[in-house]
Amino acid sequence: MNTYLFAWNPTKWSWTDLAQNIESLNQTGRVIQKWSCVSHKQVRLGDRAFLVRLGTEPKGIMGSGTIISEAFLSEHWSGEDKLVHRVFIEFDTLLNPMKEPILSLEALDIGKLSRQVWTPQASGISIKPDVTNELEAIWFNFLNDREPEETIADDAASDSYFEGATRAVISTNRERNPHARAACLRHYGYKCIVCEFDFEKVYGEAGREFIHVHHLSEVANKKGVYKIDPIEDLRPVCPNCHSIIHRRKPAYSIAEMKDMIQGNSFK
């Protein structure tokens, strides 16, 4: 998998529905946009994409996602009578630079990251392979370290009513970080880590990219806002295995679950 840097310059093109795109992403977990790509001969399905804002402050990385199409010809964004190569990007993260912090260009001018051109003249340039791991790490840490009210609503309350009841029941929910979930699934994929059930293989398109993500350390036992490592702390599990995991307190471990399936006995 290769990684590419796409660019948005608001002085040249006004992204009028950015807020709606972000809202859609927050509600559905995905939003798809087509973007011009100078590396159209090299780009492949499944390649990683980052989006940088240029032209006017604030400048920096504001989004990430996955390329989900081959390159194709499309009309130029300016309306000029010419065609440009584009790809479809499914974003897993989009930030609004006018309402929240983005990963600044200054933060990218350190270590191996300083070897990469972050202000490209064309959109869709290749990011150097020896830079990508450091970029993924700093991007994840940036998203995870943002202000709690922007990324993790620690005490998000909701009113729920039970049938036949005359009183409201207030519940406090600990919200999961969607960026950590996305990073976990990029690493482990969408097959259950316990029983290896693959929803897409069984259900086709309806099961594509469907899976639960399990926290190895139960969220309910945490106090306040905390950091997680999506590779060390999270695992993809199917709903059945996830339900069984939490039928006991403390929850069953992944190893215990695998033993259970294999018929081994344990307490």
UniProtKB/TrEMBL annotation:
Classification via SUPFAM superfamilies: PUA domain-like
Protein source organism: Cyclonatronum proteinivorum
Every HNH domain range: 192-248
InterPro entries (alphabetical): HNH, HNH_nuc, PUA-like_sf
GO molecular function: endonuclease activity; nucleic acid binding; zinc ion binding
Name recorded for this polypeptide: 5-methylcytosine-specific restriction enzyme A
